[in-house]
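Dear colleagues,

For the upcoming journal club I promised to circulate an example of a predicted protein-ligand complex. I picked one with adenosine-5'-diphosphate because it came up in last month's discussion. The inputs are reproduced below in full, followed by the predicted structure.
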Amino acid sequence: MAESDDSLALAAEGARNENTLRFLKSGARGLYIGGRFVPSLSGKTFETINPANERRLAMVAEGGEADIDAAVAAARKAFDHGPWPRMRPADRAKVLYRLADIVQAHTEELAELDTLDSGLMISVTRPAAQGIPDALREAASWANKVQGETYPTGTDHFSFSLREPVGVCGIIIPWNGPAVLAARKPAIALACGNTVIVKPAEQTPLSALRLAELISEAGFPEGVINIVTGFGLGAGSALANHPGVDAMSFTGSAAVGQEIVRGSAINFKKVMLELGGKSPHVIFADADLERAVPNAALGVFRNHGQMCFAGSRILVQREIYPEFAAALAKFAADMKVASPWDPDAKIGPLVSAAQFERVTGYIDLGVREGARLSAGGRLDGGKGYYVRPTVFSDVENRMRIAQEEIFGPVASLIPFDTEEEAVAKGNDTVYGLGAGIWTRDVGRAIRMSRQLRAGHVWINGYGLRNEMAPFGGFKHSGIGREGGKYSVEFYSEMKSVFISV
Ligand code: ADP
């Protein structure tokens, strides 16, 4: 269903690229199954809303259990009988390189669709989309590195191992990096010879559907990539529970992660879970405060706080606590809250009404729990799901605002005295995704990085990434690691072969 030109012009305000507008006008937003765009079998659709102005951007096919059955059948056929897992790795890589080249010419519209659909600032979505072609090429480069080993034996036999694709992989992605995750997560699975079914988040389906159009031009055999839009309880749960799916890769909340694990029990799927966090960012008195203050602020406020590894608990050593708290509050108060298209905006709207309710609910809770609101709070009135960057000071680590993932621009400042106390408070959480440390003392940085129970430790620079390094979390932050050879390990099965000599 296409929107009228007038309502679309209002809903898509800010977007400039003609392909973005053409895509929104086309109304062709079905599911991508078996190499074809099809409506959902139920005929149902759902609307996707621009969180900056609360207007409807588009109607999208609502995939359900029957559509997931169809997608799994297509992916199964492509895996069990099709050429993809059997072709020369270099030929698989070629298709991914071709997709990278196609995407390269269309990054601007992917960025614009993400800004419209998610409210993330164009200054964030644009560089993210521009990184997709290289991420696809990087994934393609792994196709011929899916290697086994040989093992030392006596003279009676010879033994080696093969690394083979797992099979049909379900990939469920969240709304806080829609285009990048819809492209990058399946790419390495594909490079390894798997076939995939991608389920984008219901809040942000558009860029994945545009990506599906680009994928359809790249020359993948039919059924190798399938994209099914729909809700978590519906398309998502049907995928996670499907006995025809061999592996599930999920990025999202811990609560849904538990559902994915439950679904995996049906047929012992491999699971990789990249979940949430309540990551500590520890600032010692000897830190370079000029850099530590903006880094701590952006460590939690970037993406409007909608980041799994947001450094949402900022632990500050007592002797610099008043000075640091004042500087952080000022930094937050100075961040411009504005349209995601405004080049000076530092904070745009949250993704949805539900997320707005959740985050403002936590802000009210922080006040009730007795924390001091030193910056931000609700931004009432006007259209769009805007929340100001919010700083709570004098937070106690046991408070719910310090224990539960808020997934919004809310920082909790917590004082500490000693290194031991910083470690104890830092680790006093069910999560273990990230941890930041600011100190000029190398010994302390190393001691702390060993003791903090988290998948990533950032010293004097929160949030640095390297695609080759393992990405993932301890405890409730997930299972497994993504990135380079760690993704290859997940998306492959090992087989030992023994030959009598
Ligand atoms: P958030 O709460 O931040 O929206 P979720 O973890 O709920 O994050 O969503 C991340 C992804 O998981 C989305 O694609 C969503 O549709 C999907 N999802 C939500 N619930 C389920 C479920 N029960 N089973 C499978 N997928 C789900």
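Two points we might discuss: The mean pLDDT is 96. The longest strand covers residues 157-165.

See you all on Thursday,
B. R.
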